[in-house]
Amino acid sequence: MNETLAAFSFFGHSLVITGWKILGYGASLLFAGRWVVQFVASRRHGRPTMPGLFWYMSIVGSLFLLAYFIWGKNDSVGILSNLFPTGVALYNLYLHETHKRKPHPADPAETTK
């Protein structure tokens, strides 16, 4: 995964692409893309909401970023910055999955059904 797959030079700077960087780029896109999912879900519901896909994308993105920072880059700052969100996302996914079938008493959309 550390072998150079491509190298680019522009404006005096070089960019070397490795397997680890591809994993890191993909994980960053996945982790950032979860906000697009949240935005679309909120627009559909007409109120802020966090769909289950948001939490799955958070977990997978965080785990991939952890792998990148542990084995690809050996960066303790990146490791620490992704450990906490992974744990929070796992807990929130647990809450989402265990309570998604129970109507919330304060939700007027659920009480009119």
How many structural domains? 1
Distance between termini? 53 Å
| CA gyration radius, whole angstroms | 19 Å
Fraction in helix: 55-70%
The SS-based structural class is mainly alpha
Estimate the global geometry from the Cα principal axes: elongated
Q: What is the overall pLDDT average?
A: 88
In N-to-C order, the SSE pattern is EEHHHH
DSSP strand tally? 2
Detail the poorly predicted runs: none
Helix count, DSSP H or I runs of 4 or more residues: 4
In terms of DSSP E residues, the strand content is 5-15%
Biggest sheet strand order reads 1-2
Overall description:
There is one protein chain. 67% of the residues lie in helices and 12% in strands. It is mainly alpha-helical and 113 residues long. The protein has one domain. It has a two-stranded antiparallel ribbon with strand order 1-2. Helix 1 runs antiparallel to helix 2 (52-72) and helix 2 (52-72) packs antiparallel against helix 3. The termini are far apart.
Give the helix/strand layout.
Elements: E1 4-10, E2 13-18, H1 19-45, H2 52-72, H3 76-99, H4 108-111
Antiparallel strand pairs: 1-2
Helix pairs in contact: 1-2, 2-3
Key structural traits:
mainly alpha, two-stranded antiparallel sheet
Describe, in short, the structure shown:
By secondary structure, the protein is mainly α.
